[in-house]
Specification:
Blueprint: E1 9-20, E2 24-25, E3 31-32, E4 34-35, E5 40-43, H1 45-58, H2 74-82, H3 91-97, H4 99-104, E6 105-111, E7 118-124, E8 127-129, E9 132-134, E10 145-147, E11 161-163, E12 167-178, H5 180-189, H6 200-216, E13 225-235, E14 250-252, E15 264-266, H7 270-276, E16 281-288, E17 294-296, E18 299-301, H8 303-311, E19 316-318
Parallel strand pairs: 15-17, 16-19
Antiparallel strand pairs: 1-12, 1-13, 2-3, 4-5, 5-9, 6-7, 8-12, 9-12, 10-11, 13-16, 14-15, 17-18
Helix pairs in contact: 1-6
Protein name: CRISPR-associated protein Csh2
InterPro entries: Cas7_Csh2/Csh2, CRISPR-assoc_prot_Cas7/Csh2
Organism: Desulfofundulus luciae
């Protein structure tokens, strides 16, 4: 049994999107979600969690919020997992089986102990993400009309036309937190069963999914997205957070981008934030794509090497991505 997490973490995750639609807005003809005032594209935390859930399911982990069998009501999904109608006594078993609930939490309709009584179990998971946004100003692809060989009517003599909205290029950043206090609360709800609360093994699985899920789960509108940087900062306790590291990063240039080779990412602004938590920072797990050029004062460096210089190399752990 892997140990329940005792230490907070914070995540910085960057991936890029080239000639695709990172997150369509159903309220706006599926155009990419946008912060139009700042000319940045947006991606919801739900979209990111969907990638992770789908990856975990493909790796044969059991998840609660699944798409594999089409739309299923929540109570029906719990019955599928357990083989019977869920009751409050089943909560530890459900948490042991459902890795996405241990990570992200969920609302689960579970019957009460008395006949006819019911309740919704609300669990806030230790892992939460903000919405992602692009670090660069983005542009929509000018041409949006596509045609189909299939007609709308049997008597029609030509195919139909539709809209296909895409961005030229976006470097999208997410900030996430992993709360040890939330894991402790989950452990308490599960009656102290360590298999039913977020573990170090669960978080290692999250690391793996963050690096692999997006390119493996490409669809027609999502192909062209690749992870570029992942860093998980692990603190010494369950109290410390350092705040959103995206605010410290700077692209040069930040306009007119079409590919990862078109810019450098300045890291220097992150040094002050790290210095404020230096004594409470236990280790950093990091992975960087070879095509992403990171610099400090204009000098090209690897982020792992730079972190090793300011924190000590023994506190920097490089993640692999096979």
């Amino acid at each position: 049994m892997s140990e329940v997490i005792q230490q907070n973490s914070e995540i910085l995750f960057l991936y890029d999107a080239k000639m695709c639609n990172p997150n369509g807005d159903p309220d706006d003809e599926n155009r990419p979600r946008m912060d139009t005032d700042r000319e940045r594209c947006l991606v919801s935390d739900v979209r990111l969690k969907r990638y992770i859930r789908d990856y975990l399911e493909e790796m044969n982990h059991t998840i609660y919020v699944t798409k594999s069998e089409g739309l299923t009501e929540a109570a029906g999904r719990l019955k599928q997992v357990l083989g019977h109608e869920p009751t409050g006594a089943d909560l530890p078993v459900l948490l042991t089986k459902l890795v996405d609930v241990r990570l992200f939490g969920a609302t689960m309709p579970i019957k009460g102990d008395r006949r006819g009584a019911g309740e919704a179990v609300n669990l806030t998971g230790p892992v939460q993400f903000t919405w992602g946004y692009s670090l660069n100003k983005v542009q929509l692809v000018d041409s949006v009309t596509i045609s189909s060989q299939f007609s709308a009517r049997a008597t029609a003599r030509q195919g139909t036309f539709g809209k296909d909205y895409r961005l030229y290029y976006a470097l999208i950043g997410f900030h996430g937190v992993i709360s040890a206090r939330r894991a402790a609360a989950m452990l308490a709800r599960a009656g102290g069963d360590g298999n039913a609360a977020t573990s170090e093994a669960d978080v290692a699985l999250l690391d793996e999914a963050m690096l692999k899920a997006i390119p493996l789960l490409a669809t027609r509108s999502k192909i062209g997205q690749y992870p570029r940087l992942y860093a998980r900062f692990v603190f010494t306790d369950a109290e410390t957070f350092m705040g959103d590291p995206r605010e410290d990063l700077q692209l040069n240039p930040a306009n007119g981008l079409r590919a990862v080779q078109d810019f450098t990412l300045e890291l220097k602004g992150l040094a002050g934030r790290l210095d404020r938590v230096r004594e409470r920072l236990d280790r950093v797990y990091i992975w960087q794509d070879a095509d992403l050029r990171t610099v400090v004062d204009g000098q090209e460096v690897s982020m792992a090497g730079w972190l090793g210089d300011i924190l000590g190399p023994d506190r920097v752990k490089t993640l692999g991505r096979t």
